Amino acid sequence: MHILVINSGSSSVKAALVDADSGQHSLWMTVKGLPEAPSLTFSDGTSEKLKTKGHEAAMEYAMPLLKQKLNGQYPSGIGHRVVHGGNVYDRPVRIDNDVENQIDQLSPLAPLHNPLNLLGIQLMKRHFPELDQVAVFDTAFHQSVPSRAKLYALPKEVSEKYGLRKFGFHGTSHEYVGKKAAEFLSADWRELRLITCHLGSGASITAIEYGRSVETSMGMTPLEGLMMGTRSGDIDPGLLIYLQEEAGYTAVELDEILNRQSGLAGVSGLGNDMRAILQKSTEGDRDCQLAVQMFTHRLRKYIGAYAAVMGGVDAIVFTGGIGENSAVVRHWSCQRLDYLGALIDEDVNLAIKLSADQPVVEFSRSHSRVKLLAIHTDEQLAIARHTAQLLRKADAVNTKPAIPIAISARHIHLRQETLDQLFGKNYELTVRKWLSQPGQFAAEETVTIVGPRNRIEGVRILGPVRSVDQVEVSRTDEFFLGVDAPIRESGKVENSPGIHLIGPAGELTLKQGLICAWRHIHMTPEDAVQFGVKDRDIVEVAVENGDRGLTFGNVLVRVSEKYVLEMHIDTDEGNAAEIYPGDEGVLEDTGSSGVLKKRRTD
Ligand code: ADP
Q: 445 or 399: which carries more pLDDT confidence?
């Protein structure tokens, strides 16, 4: 499926015809020098300086030429990069009037980007009225960042009144290289902890835990975090107050300093081109040396922090113009990461040349537990794939059948060995009640779980015994016990905290196994076909209970012959949503609407 990908930015507009299946870019067009002195270039080498000024006039001129050059290779749809999706979008969305209005309303959050992204959409609608258009948001991938990481420690009223929170950017690239890394490592990306470093003229770093962004360095705006080409990244906010009060800087002047005069350019005094800075630093220029040291120091600091956030890391990915091309930056950022289990292979690192034939190179040593990877990012292909996926899916989905909802109280699954320690040798569980999932039962037996603050007695064991111990509690339970458990799908207990258990015949401390269950739907392969989803998709489920319609986002699909159709939520969620046994939900979204209605991410 060929998709026309549009990135309508402040100084340039890029268009590319991309085959979403093969990944081939068969045609591209760039308008640079906007708005004052636009020049137009096509992939066939033709190029001209335009006589007009401004985005709209330049695009009006370029469009008929682009159509001519398509020469029969007509796209099936158009995918747009849109920078800010705010709280509203956590995935790509088919564009209609409502979506356009939303993008417009989100403009105050990205005044340099969203209005021009919208202009691109409107222009393409005029020139290709028959084609479906899709918006792919830079912020969407980071909607999964939990509250603890995305909120600023400001007075609640202020945060709420002005919608202050971290959104994160470069999401399309982080997701793309994260998936590429998993593919390269022949692993399921929902089983990996990745740190992805996107180092272009803007730079950001993301912690991706089991396929979800859980921390990212850019904030409410793209200014926070790493040092960048012309942006400062993290600074003490008190410094801004000082500059305003003591030196009389205005907000406009501070914006100019922080966004356009700082970062590599500000420290080196040489501009924002890392190649030139590296060259001068080897020639002994102190300011350039300092710029490189600061850039890589901050990167290494964030890598350590994000490994701590995820309780470890399996692979660290470098991408973007600097991450893909600079052996020096990779070397400086990866030195002394041995304590994490990351050992750089200097020879391989020096020799890396990414290309279409070799978009991924591993530069860690063979016995390095953490893999170091340089990966070529391809945001245009990522946008084309998201667009094609959404266009295909929208036609295939049947969302109608009702899904029974079950509320899981806190419970525990045990291995035989653990059961023996708690209840006595060769202990066999007694069935109290068969559960709806075939073969599963609530046992007569219960245990006491003991946290640092409190204990909870009578926690029901679910049988039969399993191959891993797993204790599933709600957020309320966690605060009562005084523990902090990650949201996980069942069975994924690696790097989760342990907990103390007491049974009638003994007690023990599990090393790991305490989780807060990720809300999920069990279904058979036949159900999955009917719904148009597959195992581990993430969907939204609408519940009509009484007069309060509500939608659960971030619902994990689990498909197996052994399952019967049922959605599982925990008691906190059931209480908050006033859901009772017997309520049903309807699969509302499998990626085609993308609108967030109600979400719990932490
Ligand atoms: P953008 O974010 O604008 O898409 P890129 O991802 O193309 O930017 O990255 C631009 C940055 O990459 C610039 O700072 C440039 O100097 C740097 N870069 C490109 N090639 C190299 C190289 N060989 N060595 C070091 N830095 C490089």
A: 445
